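[retry 2/3] Alpha/beta hydrolase: previous attempt timed out, resubmitting with same input.
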Amino acid sequence: MIHAKRAPLLLLALSAALLASPARAGGSAGMPAMAGMQEGDLDINGARIHYVSQGNGTPMLLLHGYPLSGELFARNRAALAAAGYRVITIDHRGYGRSTAPASDPGSIPTYAQDALAVMDRLNVPKAIIGGMSMGGPIVFEMYRTAPERFMGMILIDTIANPASVVEQALWGGMAQKAQMFGPQSLAPELLKDMLTGQTRLNRPGDTQFLTNIVKQASVAADVAGAKALANRPDSLPTLGTIKVPTLILEGLEDTVYPPLFSMKMQQNIAGSKLVIIPGAAHAAIFEKAAAANQAIINWARTVR
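[retry 2/3] Alpha/beta hydrolase: success.
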C-alpha cells in the first residue's frame, strides 16, 4: 500500500522517468513498459535490428511507416497482448534504435528480408503481419516472397499503387530536406498529415511523441526510405493473389493515402474487411488507438 503522504513524491518520480525517454514510454501519448515485454537487438543482414515483443499468444508482427519506428505502436501492444496476441514490433534499419550499414541503408526488398529474418530469429514460423504506410509495401513484398509465413494481413493507411510522378517528387524533396537540414526537419512536413488538426491543437503530447520518433532516424535512413517509397513496386497485381484473411484500417481524414485507395484494395482482396476510423488521419493506429485496437481484435478473432 502506498502511504498518502508519499504518493506525490512517487508520482513525481514516475513522471520524471517517463519524460526522460519520451520516444520509448511516450508520457501521456504512449504506453509505459508493461510486464511481459521483451526487447533486444538482432544482427540481421548486416544491420542491427531493434525489436519489442509483448504477450504470449498468436504472433502479430506490426511494421511502421516512414520515418517512424516501432514505437508508433506504443498504444497498441498492451491491448493486443491482453487479447491473446504476441505483438512484435521492429525498427526498420536506420530508424528508431536500429542501425544499418552504409552499403545498404534500406529498400523495400531489404526491409522485407529483415522482417522475415527477425521472425526466424524469434522462432515465429507464421504470424498475422501488418504494415502502416511504408509498412504496407513491405508487407506486400513479404507476401510475394513468403506467403506461407502469413496467418493474416493488416494494411494500415497504406497503398498498393506505385508512386505517381507527383508523389515521386514529394519523396525526392523529403530526401533532399533530410540531407540539408537533418531528420528533425521532416517532422513539420509530416505531422500535419499524420494527425488531424484537432489532435494537433488539443493533444500536443501526441505531436511531440511522433516528433521525437522522427528525430531518431538517421539521414541515410530518411533518404533510403524516401527512395523506397518513390520507387516502390506496383502491388496492384499482388492484391488478387492474397489468400489470407485481410483487415484494412484507414483514417477517415488521411490525406496521404485517402480512403479511396483502401476501398479499392478491399474490392480487390477477396474476403477482406475495411474499417474506416473517424477523426483520424494518416497515423490512425496511434491517433485513435482504442478504435484501431478494437477493430484489430474483432477481426483477428476470426482468423484461424
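[retry 2/3] Alpha/beta hydrolase: The chain has one domain: 32-300.
[retry 2/3] clearing retry counter.
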